[in-house]
Design goal:
Serine Threonine Protein Phosphatase 5, Tetratricopeptide repeat, TPR-like_helical_dom_sf, RagB/SusD family nutrient uptake outer membrane protein, about 10% strand, cell outer membrane, membrane, signal, two-stranded antiparallel sheet, globular
Length: about 600
């Protein structure tokens, strides 16, 4: 299946947008040819500016061919353990997970200035789109809706890292001229919600297939629902019983308004539930529904589209019905040039040679229930002599086998049965799959979500899911439970996701038990989609979950019986540290030193502890 023609083809337009992060775009035109007046003179030229706005504003979790850009926040959670020295120093993950991060050496989730470049581009479009001479009001209003959505999206990307931020509604001359104080969390959230409402009123429910990837009214509702779920969550809407949990992550004075609401309000959960329900109700008009293949499990030894189970199909079938909004820039190797930084970070199994190894910790594997819905824990002293047989006999949630590959698994026609084991020094040597930059490791489990397995290693069938409908089923269930308990639709919508996955229904009378269940369901359903770090932070669970030693499973070839067996044991990966101050990302020192973030007097606006 090939991706249909997409919006970002406009990026080829006359070479206008050859540098995606040029801070002087439209202010110092390339070659003196383009100015604000000439770009926003014709519909064709203005479409190039709109394309640049999408290029800057629509997030993607695919690893990029760039340094110092941690597009994969799963690297600092219990989802992933990667071994490579460059990933430590190029994106500061090493210092972060060992508790030694500093203001200017912490994880980069897109870059402070880069987000404001996207905001600036959206504001340029909003300010100037009415000047286009050959477009009607309907077209201009749709562009305004897209720009409002993009402005809200980039403010949210900043908000979930920093808390209250400077709110920008005019096209400043560049990120270096940003000199507006931080707004409170309440004002930041209200502004994003307002922009989403305005965008939803201007945007269509659907676009023609040639415009796949543009924001719709449903995408604006989805962003609003995500914002309001964060707003209701304990990090920002802290109940009295959890105040001690955030000690060390707050100032303890009047400046806390940039970190959280001044008071807890249970009604914020109802507001979040209503927003998620609005997405669910509006989905049919946009042609959006949960995606089904008709089977919960992927067909063994089949690397065709027809063999995909429901869960694997959601991420592999381009343009499927569940996707509310995607970033249409694919994982095609042509994007990466000579240095395949991005593709190497996706998985060793994709490259089949030197590459990053996306090891899955045991602590994350244990989030997957058994097929009968029971939880399990593997003692750290556990061993065995036939790992593939053991892991299949565990009969875990089908989503496990559609997300995580294992030593001895048949992967596809080209890779065949995978050999991640340590060699036996004789008949079965260590292969590239059992090796990392620090030597032979034999680590037996690796994630392959968004790693091409089917269609002859076709990287081009992926599109990063910015929003998919399943998110709002679980957001609705989570928020409704917090407001009124698990009875009724909270349980119904949790179980809709479990039923699609082939898992048994859950039924709880206790809000606490339901909370644990829906949080775990969200962890599994959105594994490796960029949710885990932000979810642990907003739930105020990151400090508890991300402090401790991560473990893995190591396998070793054993041919003493005459046939290859894979002995296995539990091994240490590394000790991870999450400091209380990590609940909020520090502002760059270059911005703090200008002294505009705070009150301009005694408080410089930096987040606590940094």
């Amino acid at each position: 299946m090939k991706p249909i023609s997409i919006l970002f083809a406009v990026l080829l337009f006359t070479g206008l947008l050859t540098v995606s992060c040029n801070k002087d775009f439209l202010e110092k035109p390339q070659g003196g040819t383009f100015t604000v007046d000439t770009v926003f003179n014709t519909k064709l030229n203005a479409s190039g500016a709109v394309a640049q706005m999408y290029n800057l504003c629509i997030p993607s979790g695919f690893p990029k061919n760039t340094n110092h850009d941690m597009t994969r926040p799963d690297m600092v959670t219990d989802e992933l353990y990667m071994i490579h020295p460059e990933y430590d120093w190029m994106v500061n993950v090493g210092s972060y997970v060992t508790g030694t991060a500093t203001v200017d050496a912490t994880i980069d989730r897109g870059g402070f200035g880069s987000h404001y470049l996207g905001i600036r581009q959206a504001n340029l479009v909003l300010k100037n789109i009415d000047e286009v001479t050959d477009a009607d009001d309907a077209w201009k209003n749709q562009v305004k809706g897209q720009a409002l959505f993009c402005r809200a999206m980039q403010h949210f990307e900043l908000f979930r890292q920093y808390g209250g931020i400077p709110l920008i509604t005019e096209p400043l001359d560049g990120a270096h001229q940003l000199k507006i104080h931080r707004s409170s969390v309440a004002t930041t959230i209200d502004s994003m919600v307002n922009w989403c409402n305005q965008a939803a009123a201007l945007l269509p429910a659907t676009w023609p297939a040639t415009d796949y990837g543009r924001a719709t009214s449903l995408a604006a509702k989805a962003l609003k629902a995500r914002v309001l779920l964060f707003a209701a969550s304990p990090l920002y809407n802290t109940p009295p019983s959890m105040q001690a949990t955030v000690d060390g992550a707050r100032f303890g004075n009047e400046h806390d308004t940039v970190l959280a609401y001044a008071n807890y309000d249970k009604g914020r959960w109802l507001t979040a539930a209503n927003a998620a329900r609005d997405v669910i109700n509006a989905a049919p008009a946009s042609g959006i529904a949960l995606y089904y293949t008709g089977k919960a499990e992927t067909t063994p030894n089949d690397d065709s589209y027809a063999g995909l189970g429901d869960y694997e199909a959601v991420s592999n079938v381009y343009g499927n019905s569940e996707l509310i909004l995607v970033n249409t820039l694919s994982m095609d190797a042509s994007r990466y040039g000579g240095w395949f930084w991005g593709l190497w970070m996706t998985s060793k199994v994709r490259q089949g040679q030197w590459a990053f190894k996306n090891n899955v910790p045991l602590e994350f594997i244990q989030q997957y229930e058994k097929r009968d819905g029971t939880r399990w824990t593997l003692p750290l002293t556990s061993t065995g002599d036939d790992f593939p047989t053991w892991i299949k006999a565990m009969n875990l949630d089908p989503r496990f086998y559609q997300t995580i590959l294992y030593d001895g698994m048949w992967y596809n026609s080209q890779r065949g049965v995978l050999s991640y084991y340590l060699g036996d020094g004789a008949q079965y040597p260590t292969t590239d799959f059992g090796h990392s930059d620090v030597g032979d490791d034999g680590y037996a489990l690796e994630t392959y979500k968004f790693v091409s397995r089917i269609d002859n290693f076709n990287d081009n069938h992926f599109a990063w899911p910015v929003f998919r409908l399943a998110e709002f089923y679980l957001s609705y269930a989570e928020a409704l439970n917090e407001y009124q308990g698990p009875q009724g639709e909270a349980t119904t919508y949790l179980n809709k996701i479990r039923q699609r996955a082939g898992m048994p229904n859950k039924n709880f009378s206790s809000p606490d038990d339901f909370r644990d269940a829906v949080q775990n369901e969200r962890t599994i359903e959105f594994a490796y989609e960029g949710f885990r770090l932000s979810d642990l932070q907003r739930w105020l669970k990151a400090y508890d979950v991300l402090n401790g030693t991560l473990h893995g499973i190591q396998t070793k070839a054993n041919a003493t019986s005459g046939t290859l067996k894979r002995n296995w044991r539990v091994v240490d990966f590394m000790r991870r540290t999450f400091l209380k101050r990590y609940y909020y990302t520090p502002f760059p020192s270059s911005q703090v030193s200008i002294n505009y973030l705070g009150d301009g007097k005694d408080w410089n606006g930096q987040n606590p502890g940094w």
